[in-house]
Write a structure and sequence with these properties.
The protein is of the alpha+beta class and 274 residues long. It contains ten helices and ten strands. The longest helix is centred in the C-terminal third of the chain and has 17 residues. It is globular, with a radius of gyration of 19 Å. The relative contact order is 0.19. The structure holds adenosine-5'-triphosphate (ATP). Adenosine-5'-triphosphate binds next to helix 2. Homodimer. This is Iron-sulfur clusters transporter ATM1, mitochondrial.
Length: 274
Protein backbone atom coordinates (compact mmCIF):
# COMPACT_ATOMS: atom_id res chain seq x y z
CA UNK A 1 0.00 0.00 0.00
CA UNK A 2 1.53 3.30 -0.97
CA UNK A 3 0.62 6.81 -0.13
CA UNK A 4 0.71 9.56 -2.59
CA UNK A 5 0.11 13.23 -2.60
CA UNK A 6 -0.11 15.39 -5.62
CA UNK A 7 0.72 19.02 -5.05
CA UNK A 8 -0.19 20.98 -8.12
CA UNK A 9 2.63 23.21 -9.07
CA UNK A 10 0.33 26.08 -9.84
CA UNK A 11 2.76 28.89 -9.25
CA UNK A 12 3.97 28.34 -12.76
CA UNK A 13 7.49 27.47 -11.75
CA UNK A 14 9.05 24.93 -14.05
CA UNK A 15 9.80 21.53 -12.69
CA UNK A 16 13.41 20.84 -13.44
CA UNK A 17 12.83 17.24 -12.66
CA UNK A 18 9.56 17.00 -14.46
CA UNK A 19 10.65 14.02 -16.46
CA UNK A 20 11.78 12.26 -13.32
CA UNK A 21 8.53 13.14 -11.52
CA UNK A 22 6.49 11.68 -14.29
CA UNK A 23 8.58 8.55 -14.39
CA UNK A 24 8.22 8.10 -10.66
CA UNK A 25 4.55 8.76 -10.95
CA UNK A 26 4.17 6.17 -13.66
CA UNK A 27 5.87 3.65 -11.47
CA UNK A 28 3.64 4.54 -8.58
CA UNK A 29 0.51 4.38 -10.64
CA UNK A 30 1.65 1.26 -12.35
CA UNK A 31 0.83 2.85 -15.62
CA UNK A 32 3.24 0.90 -17.74
CA UNK A 33 0.62 -1.77 -17.92
CA UNK A 34 -1.98 0.67 -19.13
CA UNK A 35 -2.47 1.46 -22.76
CA UNK A 36 -2.73 5.23 -22.58
CA UNK A 37 -4.72 6.49 -25.50
CA UNK A 38 -5.64 10.01 -24.46
CA UNK A 39 -4.64 12.56 -27.10
CA UNK A 40 -4.79 16.34 -27.50
CA UNK A 41 -7.99 17.63 -29.03
CA UNK A 42 -7.44 19.44 -32.37
CA UNK A 43 -7.95 22.86 -30.77
CA UNK A 44 -6.10 22.16 -27.53
CA UNK A 45 -4.47 25.20 -25.93
CA UNK A 46 -1.92 25.28 -23.14
CA UNK A 47 -3.49 25.32 -19.71
CA UNK A 48 -3.72 28.90 -18.44
CA UNK A 49 -2.84 28.65 -14.78
CA UNK A 50 -4.35 31.10 -12.34
CA UNK A 51 -4.81 30.03 -8.75
CA UNK A 52 -5.17 26.30 -9.39
CA UNK A 53 -8.83 25.66 -8.59
CA UNK A 54 -9.85 22.07 -9.32
CA UNK A 55 -13.43 21.14 -10.01
CA UNK A 56 -14.94 17.72 -10.58
CA UNK A 57 -18.42 18.17 -12.04
CA UNK A 58 -20.68 15.10 -12.06
CA UNK A 59 -17.78 12.90 -13.01
CA UNK A 60 -18.57 9.28 -13.82
CA UNK A 61 -15.90 6.83 -14.82
CA UNK A 62 -15.17 3.13 -15.04
CA UNK A 63 -12.21 1.23 -16.44
CA UNK A 64 -14.77 -1.14 -17.92
CA UNK A 65 -18.26 -0.04 -18.97
CA UNK A 66 -19.94 -2.70 -16.88
CA UNK A 67 -18.14 -1.65 -13.71
CA UNK A 68 -18.49 2.03 -12.79
CA UNK A 69 -15.89 3.24 -10.27
CA UNK A 70 -16.95 6.89 -9.86
CA UNK A 71 -20.61 7.84 -10.08
CA UNK A 72 -21.53 11.49 -10.47
CA UNK A 73 -18.69 12.70 -8.30
CA UNK A 74 -18.64 16.46 -7.72
CA UNK A 75 -16.35 18.55 -5.57
CA UNK A 76 -14.42 21.80 -5.76
CA UNK A 77 -10.95 22.35 -4.42
CA UNK A 78 -10.36 26.07 -4.05
CA UNK A 79 -7.03 27.43 -5.25
CA UNK A 80 -4.24 26.79 -2.78
CA UNK A 81 -6.21 24.36 -0.65
CA UNK A 82 -4.94 21.10 0.70
CA UNK A 83 -7.47 18.37 0.17
CA UNK A 84 -7.33 14.71 1.09
CA UNK A 85 -9.26 11.92 -0.58
CA UNK A 86 -9.93 8.99 1.73
CA UNK A 87 -12.12 5.92 1.65
CA UNK A 88 -12.07 2.14 1.70
CA UNK A 89 -9.54 0.29 -0.40
CA UNK A 90 -10.49 0.21 -4.06
CA UNK A 91 -13.07 2.99 -3.79
CA UNK A 92 -11.39 5.06 -6.50
CA UNK A 93 -9.01 7.42 -4.72
CA UNK A 94 -6.12 6.90 -7.11
CA UNK A 95 -8.54 6.90 -9.99
CA UNK A 96 -9.34 10.52 -9.17
CA UNK A 97 -5.65 11.37 -9.57
CA UNK A 98 -5.35 9.40 -12.80
CA UNK A 99 -8.31 11.32 -14.22
CA UNK A 100 -6.79 14.61 -13.07
CA UNK A 101 -3.59 13.74 -14.93
CA UNK A 102 -5.80 12.70 -17.82
CA UNK A 103 -4.48 9.21 -18.11
CA UNK A 104 -8.10 8.42 -18.83
CA UNK A 105 -10.99 10.59 -19.93
CA UNK A 106 -14.15 10.75 -17.89
CA UNK A 107 -17.17 8.85 -19.22
CA UNK A 108 -19.42 11.78 -18.36
CA UNK A 109 -19.18 15.07 -16.50
CA UNK A 110 -16.04 17.16 -16.60
CA UNK A 111 -12.90 18.10 -14.74
CA UNK A 112 -11.96 21.77 -14.71
CA UNK A 113 -8.73 23.43 -13.67
CA UNK A 114 -9.12 27.16 -13.30
CA UNK A 115 -12.32 26.89 -15.32
CA UNK A 116 -10.74 25.00 -18.22
CA UNK A 117 -11.96 21.54 -19.14
CA UNK A 118 -8.81 19.42 -19.04
CA UNK A 119 -9.85 17.81 -22.34
CA UNK A 120 -9.49 21.23 -24.01
CA UNK A 121 -5.89 21.83 -22.94
CA UNK A 122 -2.72 20.13 -24.10
CA UNK A 123 -1.81 17.03 -22.15
CA UNK A 124 1.75 18.32 -21.87
CA UNK A 125 0.76 21.61 -20.23
CA UNK A 126 -1.64 19.80 -17.91
CA UNK A 127 0.94 17.35 -16.66
CA UNK A 128 3.59 20.04 -16.41
CA UNK A 129 1.35 21.82 -13.94
CA UNK A 130 1.15 18.83 -11.65
CA UNK A 131 3.88 17.62 -9.35
CA UNK A 132 3.97 14.42 -7.37
CA UNK A 133 5.19 14.01 -3.83
CA UNK A 134 4.98 10.61 -2.21
CA UNK A 135 3.75 11.04 1.31
CA UNK A 136 4.78 9.55 4.61
CA UNK A 137 6.35 6.35 3.35
CA UNK A 138 10.05 5.98 2.66
CA UNK A 139 9.46 5.81 -1.05
CA UNK A 140 12.58 7.47 -2.28
CA UNK A 141 15.75 5.59 -2.61
CA UNK A 142 17.46 8.87 -3.21
CA UNK A 143 19.50 11.59 -1.55
CA UNK A 144 18.31 13.92 1.18
CA UNK A 145 18.78 16.84 -1.17
CA UNK A 146 16.68 15.19 -3.83
CA UNK A 147 13.93 14.51 -1.33
CA UNK A 148 13.81 18.08 -0.13
CA UNK A 149 13.76 19.37 -3.67
CA UNK A 150 11.09 16.94 -4.69
CA UNK A 151 8.52 19.00 -2.83
CA UNK A 152 9.62 22.02 -4.78
CA UNK A 153 12.12 21.37 -7.50
CA UNK A 154 12.88 25.04 -8.05
CA UNK A 155 14.22 25.44 -4.51
CA UNK A 156 17.66 27.02 -4.31
CA UNK A 157 20.52 25.41 -2.39
CA UNK A 158 19.98 27.95 0.40
CA UNK A 159 16.30 27.03 0.58
CA UNK A 160 17.15 23.34 0.75
CA UNK A 161 19.44 24.05 3.69
CA UNK A 162 16.86 26.31 5.32
CA UNK A 163 14.31 23.50 5.14
CA UNK A 164 16.75 21.14 6.81
CA UNK A 165 17.34 23.69 9.55
CA UNK A 166 13.65 24.22 10.14
CA UNK A 167 13.09 20.48 10.19
CA UNK A 168 15.87 20.33 12.80
CA UNK A 169 17.81 17.81 10.78
CA UNK A 170 20.58 20.10 9.55
CA UNK A 171 22.93 19.05 12.36
CA UNK A 172 22.27 15.38 11.75
CA UNK A 173 22.89 15.83 8.02
CA UNK A 174 26.17 17.62 8.69
CA UNK A 175 27.38 14.55 10.58
CA UNK A 176 26.80 12.17 7.67
CA UNK A 177 29.97 11.68 5.60
CA UNK A 178 27.97 12.34 2.44
CA UNK A 179 26.05 15.32 3.85
CA UNK A 180 23.12 16.27 1.67
CA UNK A 181 24.04 13.51 -0.75
CA UNK A 182 23.24 10.90 1.88
CA UNK A 183 20.71 8.33 0.72
CA UNK A 184 17.45 8.89 2.53
CA UNK A 185 17.17 5.30 3.54
CA UNK A 186 19.91 6.15 6.06
CA UNK A 187 17.51 8.37 8.01
CA UNK A 188 15.61 7.05 10.98
CA UNK A 189 11.82 7.23 10.88
CA UNK A 190 11.68 10.25 13.16
CA UNK A 191 14.06 12.31 11.01
CA UNK A 192 12.33 11.24 7.88
CA UNK A 193 8.93 12.20 9.24
CA UNK A 194 10.07 15.70 10.14
CA UNK A 195 11.59 16.06 6.69
CA UNK A 196 8.36 15.12 4.95
CA UNK A 197 6.28 17.28 7.26
CA UNK A 198 8.47 20.20 6.41
CA UNK A 199 8.10 19.62 2.71
CA UNK A 200 4.35 19.70 3.24
CA UNK A 201 4.79 22.92 5.19
CA UNK A 202 6.59 24.52 2.28
CA UNK A 203 3.89 23.48 -0.12
CA UNK A 204 1.41 25.19 2.15
CA UNK A 205 3.44 28.37 2.33
CA UNK A 206 3.61 28.46 -1.43
CA UNK A 207 -0.15 27.94 -1.51
CA UNK A 208 -0.08 25.07 -3.93
CA UNK A 209 -3.30 23.27 -4.51
CA UNK A 210 -2.68 19.80 -3.12
CA UNK A 211 -4.59 16.59 -3.42
CA UNK A 212 -3.55 13.80 -1.10
CA UNK A 213 -4.57 10.22 -1.41
CA UNK A 214 -4.32 8.92 2.10
CA UNK A 215 -4.59 5.63 3.85
CA UNK A 216 -3.31 6.73 7.20
CA UNK A 217 -5.70 9.41 8.36
CA UNK A 218 -3.23 10.80 10.85
CA UNK A 219 -1.26 12.29 7.98
CA UNK A 220 -4.13 14.31 6.57
CA UNK A 221 -6.25 15.45 9.46
CA UNK A 222 -5.09 19.05 9.10
CA UNK A 223 -6.33 19.25 5.50
CA UNK A 224 -8.56 22.15 4.54
CA UNK A 225 -11.05 19.61 3.32
CA UNK A 226 -11.42 15.84 3.39
CA UNK A 227 -13.40 14.06 0.71
CA UNK A 228 -14.69 10.65 1.73
CA UNK A 229 -15.39 8.31 -1.17
CA UNK A 230 -17.50 5.24 -0.75
CA UNK A 231 -19.25 3.03 -3.27
CA UNK A 232 -18.32 5.40 -6.08
CA UNK A 233 -19.86 8.53 -4.58
CA UNK A 234 -18.75 11.33 -2.28
CA UNK A 235 -20.19 10.04 0.97
CA UNK A 236 -18.99 12.90 3.17
CA UNK A 237 -16.98 16.05 2.87
CA UNK A 238 -15.63 18.52 5.40
CA UNK A 239 -12.82 19.23 7.80
CA UNK A 240 -11.52 16.52 10.09
CA UNK A 241 -13.42 17.98 13.03
CA UNK A 242 -16.68 18.31 11.11
CA UNK A 243 -16.43 14.73 9.93
CA UNK A 244 -15.51 13.34 13.33
CA UNK A 245 -18.38 15.24 14.94
CA UNK A 246 -21.04 14.79 12.31
CA UNK A 247 -19.91 12.11 9.89
CA UNK A 248 -20.37 8.38 9.95
CA UNK A 249 -17.96 6.84 7.42
CA UNK A 250 -14.98 9.02 8.29
CA UNK A 251 -15.72 8.98 12.01
CA UNK A 252 -15.63 5.20 12.08
CA UNK A 253 -12.46 5.06 9.94
CA UNK A 254 -10.82 7.50 12.35
CA UNK A 255 -11.98 5.59 15.41
CA UNK A 256 -10.67 2.34 13.94
CA UNK A 257 -7.24 3.82 13.22
CA UNK A 258 -7.03 5.42 16.63
CA UNK A 259 -7.75 2.10 18.32
CA UNK A 260 -5.04 0.43 16.25
CA UNK A 261 -2.46 3.06 17.11
CA UNK A 262 -3.03 3.25 20.87
CA UNK A 263 0.07 2.26 22.72
CA UNK A 264 2.34 2.52 19.73
CA UNK A 265 2.15 6.07 18.56
CA UNK A 266 0.55 8.21 21.24
CA UNK A 267 3.44 10.65 21.60
CA UNK A 268 3.44 11.50 17.94
CA UNK A 269 -0.32 11.93 17.97
CA UNK A 270 -0.23 14.57 20.66
CA UNK A 271 2.61 16.51 19.13
CA UNK A 272 1.01 16.40 15.71
CA UNK A 273 -2.24 17.89 16.98
CA UNK A 274 -0.73 20.64 19.12
P1 LIG B 1 -6.42 1.67 -2.52
O1 LIG B 1 -6.90 2.38 -1.28
O2 LIG B 1 -6.44 0.20 -2.35
O3 LIG B 1 -5.11 2.19 -3.03
P2 LIG B 1 -8.06 3.23 -4.40
O4 LIG B 1 -9.21 3.79 -3.66
O5 LIG B 1 -6.95 4.18 -4.73
O6 LIG B 1 -7.51 1.93 -3.67
P3 LIG B 1 -8.23 2.77 -7.26
O7 LIG B 1 -6.81 2.43 -7.49
O8 LIG B 1 -8.68 4.12 -7.70
O9 LIG B 1 -8.64 2.57 -5.73
O10 LIG B 1 -9.10 1.65 -7.96
C1 LIG B 1 -10.51 1.66 -7.94
C2 LIG B 1 -11.02 0.36 -8.53
O11 LIG B 1 -10.69 0.29 -9.91
C3 LIG B 1 -10.44 -0.88 -7.88
O12 LIG B 1 -11.46 -1.83 -7.74
C4 LIG B 1 -9.39 -1.34 -8.85
O13 LIG B 1 -9.27 -2.74 -8.80
C5 LIG B 1 -9.96 -0.90 -10.19
N1 LIG B 1 -8.89 -0.55 -11.15
C6 LIG B 1 -7.84 0.25 -10.92
N2 LIG B 1 -7.07 0.37 -12.02
C7 LIG B 1 -7.66 -0.38 -12.97
C8 LIG B 1 -7.35 -0.69 -14.34
N3 LIG B 1 -6.30 -0.16 -14.96
N4 LIG B 1 -8.19 -1.52 -15.00
C9 LIG B 1 -9.27 -2.04 -14.39
N5 LIG B 1 -9.62 -1.80 -13.12
C10 LIG B 1 -8.83 -0.99 -12.41
Amino acid sequence: VFQLSVPLNFLGSVYRELRQSLLDMETLFNLQKVNVSVKDSPNAKPLALKGGEIKFENVSFGYHPQRPILKNVSFTIPAGNKVAVVGPSGCGKSTILRLLFRYYDVDSGRILIDGQDIRDVTVESLRKAIGVVPQDTPLFNNTIEHNIRYGRTDATDEEVRAVAKRARIADAIAKFPDGYQTKTSALDTETENSLLQNINGILKEKRRTSVFVAHRLRTIFDSDQIIVLKDGVVAEQGTHQQLVDGGTVYASMWAAQEVLSIGTDTDKASSASS
